[in-house]
């Protein structure tokens, strides 16, 4: 297996100033897997759902080559549910509720055939569970992880332990400040680099993303979108595009990490154009490539 993805699979209720959806398929593992599937067909997903999760989404994942041997379906159980509300500034959101349901008893069991995965992408789940995944895999070339305020607030010490075993941490600006306990983003990034990860990527919503490795800083803009429908999952979609590109190219040089940031940003820019997974479900490679090129164009400048 090239890429192992572990995370939440959810039914999200999302409200923006423009629309509202109830129980839309989401969750970190779903966004990451769909996004990464544009780059590699060798993905193993580990997660948990109830029998209320829509079967067409399961079929869609299978059709993309995502191996679902690690997806546990609990008969009679209810899928994890999350509800969020965005206001006019779509960069900030309010969590209305988090109902763990079957996710409360989630103990990731990595199927034998996934254990030798070359790349591991740990979606936003309890850091203790992220650690248990790392205990079960052989020797991945790169461990990429995400987290969120929910876990930083509740499981800070466990998160610090997990970070010691993570190579690339992908977080948003507020999460970086919260982990590092430092208001300045660059200082926060540098502090995180001392906690374990060799690479930290800080996403700044509609202001792009910053990649930090030692003293190297690479800044990627966000694609200028005039009609943002729903930012939910953009961070996970970014992580999936990033991980997918690395898995496809098998190259973790700094040059290629920069490219991976742009591919992650390109797919994430599609994610926000629709509600939930709607837009990223139906992309063509041509669209992704065109957006990648558009990123080159908006960052190009000449000296003389
Ligand atoms: P993002 O917008 O990239 O931060 O991710 C949004 C996704 O995270 C939604 O699809 C939610 O279902 C999922 N999510 C929200 N809260 C949690 C949580 N505490 N643990 C795991 N996943 C969550």
Written description of the protein model:
With 304 residues, the chain is α/β, with parallel strands linked by helices. The chain has a single domain, classed as 3-Layer(aba) Sandwich (UDP-N-acetylmuramoyl-L-alanine:D-glutamate ligase). Helices cover 37% and strands 25% of the residues. It has eleven helices and 13 strands. The strands form two sheets. It has a nine-stranded mixed β-sheet with strand order 5-4-1-8-9-10-11-12-13, with helices on both faces. Strand 2 and strand 3 (20-26) form a beta hairpin. Helix 1 crosses helix 8 and helix 9 crosses helix 11. The radius of gyration is 18 Å and the shape is globular. The protein starts with a strand and ends in a 5-residue tail after the last helix. The mean pLDDT is 96. Bound molecules: adenosine monophosphate (AMP). Adenosine monophosphate binds next to strand 2 and helix 8.
